Amino acid sequence: MSRSNHPPHRRRARRSALAVGALAGAFAVTLSTLGMAQASEDPGVLARVDNPYAGADVYVNPEWSARAAAEPGGSAIADEPTGVWMDRIAAIDGVNGGMGLQDHLDEAVAQAGGQPIVFQVVIYNLPGRDCSALASNGELGATEIDRYKTEYIDVIADILREYESDANLRVSAVIEIDSLPNLITNVSPRPTATPECDTMLANGNYVEGVSYALSELGSIGNVYNYIDAGHYGWIGWDDNFGASADLFQQTATHGEATVDDVTGFIVNTANYGPTVEPYYTIDESINGTPVRQSSWVDWNRYVDNQSFAQGFRQELVSTGFNSNIGMLIDTSRNGWGGPDRPSGPGPRTDVNAYVEGSRTDGRIHAGNWCNQAGAGLGERPTAAPASGIDAYVWIKPPGESDGASSEIPNDEGKGFDRMCDPTYQGNPRNNNNPSGALGDAPLSGHWFSAQFQELLANANPPV
Questions:
Q1: How many CB atoms neighbour CB 462 within 10 A?
Q2: Predicted pLDDT of residue 23
Q3: Is 238 one of the catalytic residues?
Q4: Which of 38, 44, 144, 461 is least surrounded, with the fewest CB atoms within 10 Å of its CB?
Q5: Where are the domains of the chain?
Q6: Contact assessment for residue 21 and residue 45, using Cβ atoms and an 8 Å cutoff
Q7: CATH node for 52-457
Q8: Chain segment 161-206, per-residue pLDDT in tens
Q9: 390 known ligand binder
């Protein structure tokens, strides 16, 4: 649906009155002292920094922190920063007496104490959300793009604009997890296609919604948009890699969005693929057989998220994104520690034995995503850990479920996905392997104590 069919909202040219005129001199001083990027042509508008995580603290969600601290051993990580999820319209004001977006922003300002701080917010409520799964389905039907814009994005943008003049607040907005990659891998004629994904491709509301979110939030001077880009075990194959980059570029230039609205991309959000596989690489061969040909790798170009993020970044730049875009990697649950973690390369008898003995990824299949048994906390949130990587982040708060392991009636729009059922073995997306999911899991986003304890026990690096 064309943007012109909707009432105009605040556009890029409009800025908070607090960010102009009298504050220009003070902002110039702040730019100098904080090492910020060169100021824009408007002397009253605070320029964005190249990497918002550099030289900044990151917001600790007090609600998650309290739940973590209440767990045995949880106080060791309760002060780690995690993402705040706006996964339905009601979350903006807060649900069940909890904190809303404005409450979190006020707390972030208080935590900053006059120093730079990053507030991580997940924008996650597209029409027909997560067309290839059920556990993370949302409240909006496939055609409710108007509600998405006016009741969700516009309201979030209005709240964020109230904080635009805060020189120390940097808002990292993670945009619509799993949405655009689904339009590449889970549509006809792919064997993994679903009718729901075909519908979202045909009606264009994923592209329309993401581009609208980019343009609205990108018009706010201290908001940094990171588009979700799946992970290497999803779009690392040749037939997905370039097509995904092209779709992201088309989306970022659709409607009133531009590539300038995109700070970067995030990979492995709420997933389990390792950041770096330390004991084998994609370039190796065993007795003349390439690692790519092993059953686990299955001709993928990548074996971990960091190499994928760096390679995909170059592909994105080649399609027209700015050369200074950065990547985020969600490391909240991809540590894979514990007694079964290998301590070195596997046997070189054949390529499958080598890869199986080398890989730290403890999943049964790389397509498994729900409440994975044996997973551990990964690298702690860190700014600029590698070339092209803006930060390791914990966007998925450890201890929050991916989905219920059996059907639970609810008013949150969340369905029952068999990939969250530990007894399930029948999904072509993971070659009909067992799901690898933990049992007795609650609805997605709800606290899952047993998973939290596993993540602590299997943390790598150890807690």
A1: 13
A2: 30
A3: no
A4: 38
A5: 52-457
A6: no
A7: 3.20.20.40
A8: 999 999 999 999 999 999 999 999 999 999 889 999 999 999 999 9
A9: no
